Each structure stands twice: as structure tokens, then as C-alpha cells.
């Protein structure tokens, strides 16, 4: 029987701990931000396990169309090195490079890091092995850049039995939405604890609401990890 490998995707949100099988491969930072004038940013990948770990790094242009995430291979940025073998207890420095004249400004990217099958795992034919895939946002905006809350539009859309929360980002900064609750019938109804998702500049995204929730007046949400939740009125 051949050894089976299952790819486990980790979307970094900045403050979650990971399950035990993920502990041998760690990454930081969990979001990469290029400030104005910067041409390179570091990412560190650490092997806390007892065996060497092979990794492959790729960069994708990240767009949102028709309320879906679209990833295409990035030509604007360079990843160095694209492949690495990390010994036990060591860490690998990876650089995301924006060459002179690159058009990354105003765009968003995803760094995908794949754990590669190791030789010792290959000879074990009777078990299921988990291979990690990390998906890290890369933005050409400073982390401290202020978000214009007035540029965020939120509404509810009901089609058949499903009601969705629609969020449109009319601003110039990508927005990360977490800890979302809906004010409805005088009550605060929790929609999502932790990360719900991202809305890139000029994009619109949708998330289904729990069954039975079909109306509301405003949204309470953490935007870009701000300590204070923002209140966003729902538009018809």
C-alpha cells in the first residue's frame, strides 16, 4: 500500500495556536507588509522537529472577483530561496523581493509555503502523513496604515434559504475582518469568532450567516486587528 499524504492548509490570522501536527513547522511574521520605499521583507521558517523538513515557497497575485479569491503566479515579486531543506532545530530566512520598477504597490499577494514529503515518510507505507501548506498575506501597505471605515459597505442578501453578509471595500487598504457580530432585534448575535476573511480594495466578498438570521441593522467587527470593534451600519 502506498503512503498517503494529506495537505493541510493553514491560513494565518495572527493569534491562533496550531494543532500538534503543525508544531514542527513554524513561520513568522504571519502577515507581510511592505511600507513605502521598501524593496525586501524577511520571512522566517523554523523546524522545531527532529527530522529535516523540505519546503517550497511560491508567490501569487491575489485578487477577488465575483466574490471569490483568485490566485495567479506573481511576476512582480521574487522569492529567495524558492526551495529549502531545514535541519532540525534550525530556521530558514526567506526574502520576498520587490525589484526596482516592480508594480506591487496597490496590489495584494499570497505567499504559499508547502511542506515537502521527507524520505523517512516515504518509506512508511501504512500511515497517513499530513503535509502543511501555509498561506500568508503580503500587502504593499504599512501595518500601521489607518483604514477609512466609511469606505466599508455592508449589507445582507437573502436568496432562498441562505442569507449572506456582503462586505464591499471601497477604500485603498485591504481589510481583515474578525470577531463579527450582527445587531438584530435589539440583540447582538455573534456571527464569527476569530478571522472571517479579507476584502481587498475595490472588491466585494460574501459570507453565509447562521441559519435563522435574515435581518439586522448594523455590524460590529474587528478591522485589521484593531483592539476596538467598529460599528458599520447595514445598507439596504
TrEMBL record:
> What is an annotated GO biological process for this record, any one?
cell wall organization
* Name under which the protein is recorded: Fimbria/pilus periplasmic chaperone
User: According to its record, what are the GO cellular component terms?
Assistant: outer membrane-bounded periplasmic space
Q: Which keywords label this protein?
A: Signal
**What species is given as this protein's source?**
Intestinirhabdus alba
List, alphabetically, the Gene3D superfamilies matched.
Immunoglobulins
Domain Pili assembly chaperone N-terminal spans what residues?
A: 25-140
* Signal peptide from the UniProt entry: 1-22
Pfam families per record: PapD_N
What PANTHER family has UniProt attached to this entry? PILUS ASSEMBLY CHAPERONE (PTHR30251), SLR1668 PROTEIN (PTHR30251:SF4)
Task: List, alphabetically, the InterPro entries matched.
Answer: Ig-like_fold (IPR013783), PapD-like_sf (IPR008962), Periplasmic_pilus_chap (IPR050643), Pili_assmbl_chaperone_N (IPR016147)
- Domain of life, per lineage: Bacteria
